[in-house]
């Protein structure tokens, strides 16, 4: 199939030639897709650490990738490496340890875990106050050096860049729940500028820790309906009460269409456009009138050179929090007008939970698989529709549909928003 190499604005068309994914459903695109369209949930009880006294005791954990005692940053690096390897192998590009482009990595902020902090403080010998000099003295000991090495935010990106042999300095970033989309957007923009022909975008997050559960619970963001775990995440339902924390990672090999076709690569899809828009309404909340996400979707359509009428499917941000789901409906209704109730929109988070900084990349991969397979994953647990959100959420059961163009929404804390327009067959 012949694709144009330039878009309507004369910019390089951006092809996706490789994808990789890990979620609570499993490792690899085949396993994930099979379970996703079957409406299977990956949300389960947390067994990794004690949950006594916690309001929320479930999560979309990636237990099949976890090793006892593994720090989140180490696990993040592990699953990011796995999805990157899957994507690069599918793209068939470069050689082992030599990827011909830059790395854009979306990952969560890093800090020392509490067990490590207590271990470090105890080793200083101080009874109450630990001085900076005490910490420096202890931190230089071989036993503690790994704690500090893996608490440097950029170190995961550096390790991945060494492993894959990417070009230039790796870019590590976090824009809250929009981070995975931002990593893809940066890769697209870099290729469009002519800085490179190929880029590797990865989003990875392993934030299921006691501290994360406490913090999000204090924000009243997490669901406390723990039983049964698989029925907890209920995007767009009237009885939704919060999101389910989850882990996951996804990678995309992005490539100029001209470069991809010249080497005979299989085209998995196109990143047709990217939109972003932020607001300063609140440190965690986005403006409830939906104006920032309206602008974000409109910016994506403008960048892609299409109109809302061209969109066949919306992969919702769909967190299952009361405010966010209502805000997303407000935005979709404003942008799509009378079509809003007819365009299918579903939430992957109903099955895998909210993978935070990885979500934009994870859901971009699922959107591409939706276009490839012409089958829309459902929004499960939709048993009590919310009359204030009259959308076609593809309730409970997957649906076959003709999909050429889709939009994937990522709306983050503090009003950090990214929307991606993804397409299959050329127009």
Reconstruct the topology from this structure:
Layout: E1 14-23, E2 26-27, H1 29-37, E3 44-45, E4 58-59, H2 72-91, E5 103-107, H3 114-123, H4 132-139, H5 145-149, H6 155-164, E6 171-173, H7 179-192, E7 198-205, H8 210-218, E8 248-256, H9 257-262, E9 269-278, H10 291-304, E10 313-315, H11 322-336, E11 345-346, H12 349-352, H13 359-373, E12 375-376, E13 399-400, E14 405-412, E15 416-423
Parallel strand pairs: 5-6, 5-7, 10-11, 10-14
Antiparallel strand pairs: 1-2, 1-8, 1-9, 3-4, 7-8, 9-15, 12-13, 14-15
Helix pairs in contact: 2-6, 7-13, 10-11
Search tags:
Peroxisomal Thiolase, Chain A, domain 1; 13 helices; 18% strand; 2 domains; 427 residues; two-stranded antiparallel sheet; alpha/beta; 11-stranded mixed sheet; 15 strands
Provide a descriptive summary of the structure in words:
Helix 7 (179-192) crosses helix 13 (359-373) and helix 10 (291-304) packs across helix 11 (322-336). The protein is α/β, with parallel strands linked by helices and 427 residues long. It has 13 helices and 15 strands. It has 2 domains: 14-110 and 151-423, 3-Layer(aba) Sandwich (Peroxisomal Thiolase, Chain A, domain 1), CATH 3.40.47; 114-149, no CATH class. Strands 1, 2, 5, 6, 7, 8, 9, 10, 11, 14 and 15 form an 11-stranded mixed beta sheet that branches. The radius of gyration is 21 Å and the shape is globular. The model has no long low-confidence stretch (mean pLDDT 92).
């Amino acid at each position: 199939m012949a694709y144009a190499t330039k878009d309507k604005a004369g910019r390089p068309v951006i092809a996706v030639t490789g994808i990789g994914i890990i979620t609570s459903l499993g490792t690899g695109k085949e396993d994930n897709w099979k379970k996703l369209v079957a409406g299977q949930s990956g949300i389960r009880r947390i067994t990794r650490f004690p949950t006594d006294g916690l309001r929320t005791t479930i999560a979309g954990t990636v237990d099949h990738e976890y090793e006892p005692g593994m720090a989140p940053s180490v696990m993040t690096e592990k699953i990011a490496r796995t999805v990157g390897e899957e994507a690069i192998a599918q793209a068939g590009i470069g050689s082992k340890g030599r990827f011909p482009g830059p790395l854009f990595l979306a990952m969560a902020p890093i800090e020392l875990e509490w067990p490590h902090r207590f271990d470090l403080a105890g080793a200083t010998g101080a009874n109450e106050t630990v001085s900076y000099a005490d910490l420096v003295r202890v931190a230089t000991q071989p036993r503690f050096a790994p704690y500090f090495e893996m608490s440097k935010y950029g170190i995961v990106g550096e390790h991945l860049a060494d492993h894959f042999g990417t070009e230039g300095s790796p870019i590590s970033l976090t824009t809250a729940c929009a981070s995975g989309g931002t990593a893809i957007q940066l890769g697209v923009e870099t290729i469009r500028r002519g800085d490179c022909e190929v880029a590797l975008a990865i989003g990875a997050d392993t934030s299921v820790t006691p501290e994360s559960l406490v913090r999000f619970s204090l924000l009243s963001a997490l669901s406390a309906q723990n039983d049964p775990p698989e029925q907890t995440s209920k995007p767009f339902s009237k009885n939704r009460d919060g999101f389910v924390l989850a882990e996951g990672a996804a990678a995309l090999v992005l490539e100029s269409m001209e470069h991809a076709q010249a080497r005979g690569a299989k085209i998995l899809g196109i990143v047709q456009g990217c939109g972003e828009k932020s607001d300063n309404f609140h440190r965690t909340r986005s403006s409830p009138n939906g104006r920032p996400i309206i602008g974000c979707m409109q910016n994506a359509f403008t960048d892609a050179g299409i109109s809302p009428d061209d969109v066949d499917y919306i992969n919702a941000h769909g967190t299952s929090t009361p405010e966010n789901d209502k805000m997303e409906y407000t935005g979709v209704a404003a942008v799509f007008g009378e079509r809003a109730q007819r365009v299918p929109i579903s939430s992957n988070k109903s099955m895998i939970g909210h993978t935070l900084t990885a979500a934009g990349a994870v859901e971009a991969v699922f959107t591409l698989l939706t276009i490839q397979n012409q089958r829309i994953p459902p929004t499960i647990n939709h048993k009590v529709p919310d009359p204030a959100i009259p959308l076609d959420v593809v309730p409970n059961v997957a649906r076959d549909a003709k999909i050429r163009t889709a939009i994937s929404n990522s709306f983050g804390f503090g009003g950090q928003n990214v929307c991606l327009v993804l397409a299959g067959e050329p127009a």
